Amino acid sequence: MADKPKSKANDDAPPRRLNRAVGVAEALGGVLDPALKKRGFASRDILSHWPTIAPAPYDKVTRPDKLSWPRGEKGAEGATLYLRCHPGHALALSHEGQRVAASINRYYGYFLVGQVRLSAEPFVIEDEVPQTVPALPEVTRARISRTVERVSDPGVRDALRQLGQAMARRKSK
Question: What is the pTM of this model?
Answer without folding.
Answer: 0.56
